[in-house]
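Technical note accompanying the year-one report. For the benefit of new consortium partners, we illustrate the data format agreed upon in the data management plan: each record pairs a sequence with a structure-token string. No post-processing was applied to the example shown here.
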Amino acid sequence: MENGGAIISEYPEYTEPDSEKFRQRNRIVSGLSLGVLVVEAEKRSGTSITARYAKEQGKDVFCIPSSLKNRKGIGTNMLIQKGAKLVLSPKDVLDSYIEYNEMEQITIEDLEQIKEKEYMDLDKIKPEYRKIYNVLNEELSIDEITKKTKIDISTLYQKLFLMEMEGLIEGRQNKYKKRRYDK
């Protein structure tokens, strides 16, 4: 909490844990996520429940395949069989969120010009990112960015993720700011 985190629960503080509450927690976790990556899951497991919630919520479900001899990987393989996206490398996940054909290709000459400036020129920023980029003159939390841009939080998280992947901004301890380019 001291570093900008949050506690999200349907229960009051000091509520005793039980297995049903874990299912509800998994629903919240998948609801807050862009997608869910399943590394290992038994046939019946909390991970499989989280993946089911994610699918119901329209989220992406990614799975790393497992050996058929590994009983802790049966659920993972079953999710792939039911349509989860097969993942063999981090690029497989990133490809679902970053459309490379829409990204501007930057040359070495472009990078040298960028280094001469403190921040990237607004005209080099995709129009859908400009509103967010404009408010990040100082380090801001998600709540502060939401208030200033009036963008709903799920859309904002997605755009911040993509902006960070494209090197436009930096995120640290749930706060974001424009990325500085060394002079």
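Partners are asked to follow this layout when depositing records. The first helix runs from residue 19 to 32.
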